[in-house]
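Input/output pair, single chain:
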Amino acid sequence: MQNALASAGYPERVLVACSGGPDSLALAAIAAYFARRGHVDGHPVSVAGVVVDHQLQPGSAEVAARAAETLRELGLSPVEVRTVQVASTGFGPEAAARDARHAALESAADDLGCQAILLGHTLDDQAEQVLLGLARGSGTRSLAGMRPFRGRLLRPFLGLRREETLEICDVEELDAWHDPSNADPAFARSRTRVEVMPVLEEKLGPGVAESLARTAAILQQDADFLEDLANETYLSLVQRTDDGAWLPEDAVRDLPAALRFRVIAKAAADVGGQQPGYGRLQAAEALLRRQGSAGPVELPGHVSVYRLSLSDLEQERAASGGPESAASATAGPREAVRCGKLVFRHQKSPQQ
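Output:
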């Protein structure tokens, strides 16, 4: 906890997110220790608490109220319960619940003036995250797992095993709530936790969870480097228009594959889309190898991407006439390119 708060620049006011489970209760107990001391390494600190009620299970309000009372007994102040509506997002119930929870946490942090939000994810959670990413064929970003800190979110317990948080609760005499969904085989994460990880530990020997978490830590450095490089590259190439954006196809085609796919994904996000899966990215990237104008390829979030060939561009310029069309033929790469375009446009859904 001390290292996590130091890495965040010693925030004066922090918010503990607690479900009432053993991981987050142990987190609250350790945070309460620093709250009672009033400082971390001599830097003043106060600790608030929030419990998010997702309303997904019978009796969830009672569980949330009990967790909030435990936080108050530990000395956290103020403590709030935030009730959320989990809307379907098309990415599964776990993702929808996570989105609703994070929105509630950010809102609570704003209202309470907290500079950091503490989450109780453990090394076991990290290992499960990496394993799920492998099973789904995800890329570097997913395999990098959860970050120790991102924005206001801090995860001080990513180096602790789950049994250690249980031990903290025993020592502190905290009665933790055990979420029944954690053992529900309907959820992929639950199956990974209850069925897959124990088999891996049995067949491959102890240390599998630590190895998976170590893989995430290594890949985080790689992912950060590629993300920064892709962002710089995208900003140097993108041309924004009133109805979307476009990229010069020759420049995109010449990029290394690791950057090319990331730049295409950034263009889709820039015009209002969502992160495309690898299959959709492959389909969009394949437009660069087509002859003539091609597409559109539909990407998540109502984004269409298509290739506009050089011959079609020249026909457009000739049809428009005037001095601007003549100047475009000799313009620099930021104004017009002597090659085709990869065009991205957001198509509003019928509901919108």
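The CA atoms of residues 293 and 308 lie 5 Å apart. DSSP finds 14 helices and 13 strands in the chain.
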